[in-house]
Amino acid sequence: MIKFYPSDKDDFNSEIYMWVGEREFANGLDSILFTTVKDWINKDWPFNKVTYPGRSKKQEDWNTPNIIVIPNCNYLLLSPL
Fold it and tell me: How many domains are contained in the chain?
């Protein structure tokens, strides 16, 4: 899943969030997805100041959800603290 949002931070014009299911995360898909999305955004989208909260910036710098893994569930759930 990939979500794009306008940023309320002056340094950025777009915030991009992404996540994969638990099984895919365990198989390394998350890092592949992150690399692929960054390349895709840089090549094909007009955003010039993009950030990936929780990935390219420290989690505590953002009001972003944390990842919760539920056993026997096929998804990673995002939960605000």
Answer: 1
Residues contacting residue 62 through CB under 8 Å, at least 6 positions apart = 15, 53, 54
Nearest to 8 by CA among 78, 76, 81, 63: 63
The structure's pTM equals: 0.66
Q: In whole angstroms, give the CA distance from residue 14 to residue 50.
A: 5
Torsion (CA) 33, 13, 51, 8 in degrees, nearest 10: -120
Residue with tokens 């998804």: 75
pLDDT recorded at residue 9: 83
Task: State the residue range of the domain holding 15.
Answer: 2-79
